[in-house]
Write a structure and sequence with these properties.
Blueprint (H helix, E strand, L loop, with lengths): L1 H27 L11 H20 L10 H16 L7 H7 L26 E2 L5 H10 L8 E9 L8 E9 L7 E8 L11 E13 L2 E13 L7 E3 L2
Length: about 240
Amino acid sequence: MVAQSYYFFWRVFLLLSYSFFILGLLLSNQILRYIHPDFIKWQWFSAILLFFFAFIQVASPKLKDAKLHPLVICAFLLPLVLGYLVPPVLLGADAVQRQGWSVYDTQWGSSSLYLDENLVGGSHPILISDENFVQVMHALYQQPQKYVDREVELTGFVARYPSLDFTEFLLVRLIVSCHVAHAQPDGFIVVADNAEELALNQWVHVRGYIEIDDHIGSTVLKLRAVDIQKVPPLTNPYVYLW
């Protein structure tokens, strides 16, 4: 009887703990530090389903007699403990070192990306926001010559790469297509006299003009800065592919 109560307790405890953990992430919006917003509906589904399974455990007398191996308990308990003890970390300049730096717009090179031509057409400044970041960057790399000397404004964080000059830094946003762990850095190489003064992961708003240059044998877009303003870190530093 004691053994049955022991197994019953752990089954209900683990199911409810996972359910409440996911619900906590959803209600606090911390879930956006893990996944793309389009997958949030599935997290609601999983949290409700886990709660339902816990209810079934309590409501069904036959299930109370089912055994649960201690190794199975540990296998489910360890990630749960880590989830509560280790807070989600916002990725930054370290992701550039780990994932590499794509200045050639190869990973998002899909012609299916919709772009409102009013955003990049004409001669007005190109304002890059969270909502249009991927589409605009794709358009710029599709026809780089077309946008030379165009004024651009965008916000991002500072990163470095060994191949850059001391007057250059990376102005980066992290693009999430699925899970944050797979986020890919994209943005501009910024040329500025005070590039060395900017700390890693410092968020800045940059206004500058597009120019074409060679970087490790490939043609890339650079942004010659005319104004750099330090800004507070964004609540959600990620931009989304779709």
